[in-house]
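idk why but the lab printer keeps eating my pages so im just putting this in chat instead. protein + G3I:
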Amino acid sequence: MKRSILATALLSVAAGAAAAQDGGIKVNAVGFLPQAHKLAVVPQAAKASRFEVVGADGKVVLDGALGAASRWEPAGETVRVADFSALTQAGTYRVRVGGLLSDPFTVAPDGYRTLGDAALKAFYFNRSAIALTPQYAGAWARPAGHPDDKVVVHASAASKARPEGTIIASPKGWYDAGDYNKYVVNSGIATYTLLAALEHFPDYFKRDIGIPESGNGVPDILDEAMWNLEWLLTMQDPNDGGVYHKLTNLRFDGIVMPHAASNTPRYVVAKSTAAALDFAATMAVASRVLAPFEGKWPGVSQRMLAAAQAAWRWAEAHPDVVFKNPKDVVTGEYGDAQLDDEFAWAAAELLISTGQAAYAQAFIRRDAPLSTPAWGNVAALGWMSLAQHRERLAPGIDRALVERRVDALAMQLAAAAEGGYRVPLAAKDIVWGSNAVVLNAGMMLLQAYRINSKPAYLQAAQSSLDYVLGRNATGYTFVTGFGARPVMHPHHRPSMADGVAAPVPGWLAGGPNPGQQDARDCPPYPSKLPALSYLDHDCSYAANEVAINWNAPLVYVTAALSALTPRTEANLQTATPSLPSLPSLLREEQLLQFDRFDKATAQAIGAHLILRAYRERKTVTIEITRGDTVLFTQAMPGASPDHADWIRRKNNLVKRTGHSSFYTHNEVRQAGGDHDALPGLDMRDYAAHGGAFPVVVRGEGVVGTVTVSGLPGPDDHALVVAALKDYLKVDQL
Ligand code: G3I
Ligand code: 9MR
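predcted complex ->
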């Protein structure tokens, strides 16, 4: 079901995500680790010279002078920076300048855990050939799509051993993006980036994220990568080692759920040099990352290394097969005519995994320059792996050269982050997928920091994350499900077709793109300026699609910052929530009130509730009413049918008392009464259990209810209160 433009617009307004946050203070609206560098961007128009940071209770905890005014051309803005790095105490805060208040953010020792887990879990949500169950996917559970067990060899891919029309099996793998096709080039870089994150920060990935394989003794990130590696292996023709460029329909699927699209024939299309080399590099890395798990996957590590070498040999024999879509295929191309960088990357990985000098020579021969990686520019990935393994490099590669090159790139990127928004992103970098450009720059800065610990590199890397989380010219947090102004309408077929108000969580939107290549399919962009060329609209495949190769550096950067940001004992403590007292429950009812409450409000609150329930792995039923009208309802997959009756009875209590059902529950219990036998009430029609909360519109009184059922009463109540706080942006309580 596609939402109408009107409904979409209403939902954005309700979520506070309608437009660029013109003139506002821009800050990473997720938050910071205690010892991190912390900046906010303040418009010059604020005409102030000082800033304050205020805590959840409204008290000023820090103040300071704004930096000098500085122009940021990509957004045509002059801004000043507030540096509040001195704030290290855990808590929730906002930055204030005159009458302007930023979105809230947290300072917390494990501050990127939820974000990092969600960014990785996004890959699970894009798995093909497997049903996503409510246990792992919450409200976004869906049937399996695209089994790919009978894929047709396209004319462009025909060979003697596999003529046109041959049927092969090529199941599993991740859908590339908002579309349902699978492309080796892009899959390679995405998988590599996840494997590199694990290779560089093994301790960080010890915690489960809740996928079907969790608890099997293998880090979840590796289980997730395996889902795709198993598919990638099938893309190699065993007869000659060549690798098909992509597995695809002839044209893009419609805007439907994956299982509804599964009847269209799917093809493997032409072998290419880029695909063979990206495959070789990725398999070489996988073979070494998998080696310690031989017991779990016997023989697979060796098989991957052999596959990598066979693909390399094919590429050496076919060094310039550039992929172009055949006439009858119009899906993603990932075509790239410059192949030195692919040769260099594959050579570097094969060198590290085999120690053979021939690969060192091949790497040097290509002399591939080091610049921020992207799907068509992969040399940096080889340099990054060489840096990781620099203490054990085979003869022929000079460790000092690797260190110098990585440092030189970081120096350039850190310099680019000196003015304006203080991000390692220049106007020329703002292309299709710009949010991943800035995160890949962050990833490279972190490689240099790992070598020489220069604080400026860690700070600029932090800035790359801050940018996508809200310190950007649009004010959006570009990750679905995060921040006060999250992306709500990504070009992502499941998010568009599933009928769930909230998009699938954890996805990074492509981001600003002055190319505006989707202009014909979309309402006008708000600006032509590079950093403002963004639409939070699901029409926008050029600025608001999601993609695996964009999420991968988000996973890498959150893991790396979590592992590398210095820690001190002093900031390991977190605030402990106080137990509910009647006055505190009344205070909730006073603070969580509305100026207006309509269907759009209910939809947005419903979206927050669904997201919270998913994050906390809870199965609930939600109902939001105004008067006798149900404005929003959602029973999550697996929810019990009797939730509806609990909701009816809890709501009746709220209508009668004007208080939350949890308030009455506590009131009765504290008076020594039995909450299941309220005097004078027929308990078949009332329930004094937490979960129903009054909707109070200022000036009108109680007009409706926001209700959750499915958990113990205190937890139902807590879920509702948390979602209302999210929606109303109330951070007291
Ligand atoms: O690099 C040049 C830059 O030098 C130049 O200044 C600029 C001017 O427009 O263009 C830059 O190239 C752009 C390139 O992305 C940058 O990576 C191209 O214009 C632009 O057309 C190209 O877009 C690619 C897009 O597919 C269209 O082919 C994206 O990189 C790529 O991420 C995207 O990938 C799609 C798949 O095809 C299908 N699946 C979804 C996926 C994400 O949207
Ligand atoms: O939905 C497609 C998206 O996944 C691709 O990245 C994009 C690349 O060109 O194309 C999208 O499909 C659009 C097509 O190109 C033009 N007509 C509208 C399609 C989106 O609904």
